Amino acid sequence: MFLLLTLAFAAFAESSSRSSSSESSESSEECSSEEGNPGTEPETTTVVDSDENCNATSDSPNDESSPVPSSDSPNDESSPVPSSDSPNDESSPVPSSDSPNDESSPVPSSDSPNDESSPVPSSDNPNDESSPVPSSDSPNDESSSVPSTAAPSSPQYTLPVTEEDKNAAVQCHNKFRSELALGNSLNKTGGNKMPSASNMRKMEWDDNLAKFAAEWANKCSISHSWNGWAGENLAMNGGTFTNKDAFEYACGRWWGELAALGFPKDLILTGENFGGIGHWTQMAWANTDRIGCAMAQNCPNTNWKTYVVCWYYAAGNYFGSPVYEAGEPCSKCSPKCDKAIGLCQ
């Protein structure tokens, strides 16, 4: 079974889990970069798994003013690491252009996959669409002909991601987002459907996000990265999967939170309704249009054999903001929309 974890910026995630002593037991947890994340663990089926998703903020997700941080080298320890701030910190999840000492950025939840705490909203807007996703290239590129005297690189637990793997992750997300945009997503009960969406964006794969996700997955921390600017969903499983199967399974489990728990039709994310559904809210966040995922296997010091990390931009899960705007599909898209699937492009 998968353990699910989700990160939230004003609500960066939820985490829930059901862990068992054997790999055959099921456990799921949602890890949200909750600056405190409420998480609940959806029922799982055969192998132990865990999912985590994170980031939320209290301001409007449509602010386009915030820049996105630049990335360091894959082996650079300065890459996104959890903040020491309180999980109830309401600072912003999106990087600010202010001084590096600015403490306004939000902090994902530091809880373990089995923690069921809730995420806390950030005060800034995570849906800034004015900035590019940070580059994964290091300014100190070591590709020159000069021999390196550096120590051997750390063990690699992540698997290479193929085009097929990328397509599987993107198509799964867009299938569910299209279903939601067209008003066909079941909301907890079989006959009750969510309102159609007027501004649901189509997702695309982003190699830089995938690079960051892989760097974090390779640390085998089984917890949120506290990266402060990107949404994050995590899933852990006691079985062994291919990238494609792991991405698709985690995607389905995360989206299944809607039918299992339900969401208010006013579509506003709050601390009260965030628990247990933070993976779904990040997947369904209208302004999120880029995703990058990675999977690590056989991490040491853990019973989880499969560890999935997906990063999202712009980040979602902002408390006090709607997951999306209800209305006629494509009616609030700019500049264009695929009306057949109801997704803005």
TrEMBL record:
Alphabetized InterPro entries for the sequence: Allrgn_V5/Tpx1_CS, CAP_dom, CAP_sf, CRISP-related, V5_allergen-like
Domain SCP: 164-320
Cited Pfam families: CAP
Keyword Secreted tagged: no
Keyword annotations: Signal
Signal listed as a keyword: yes
Position of the signal peptide: 1-15
Region (Disordered), start-end ranges: 11-158
Biased composition (Low complexity): 11-25, 34-46, 58-155
Designated name of the protein: SCP domain-containing protein
Native species: Heterodera trifolii
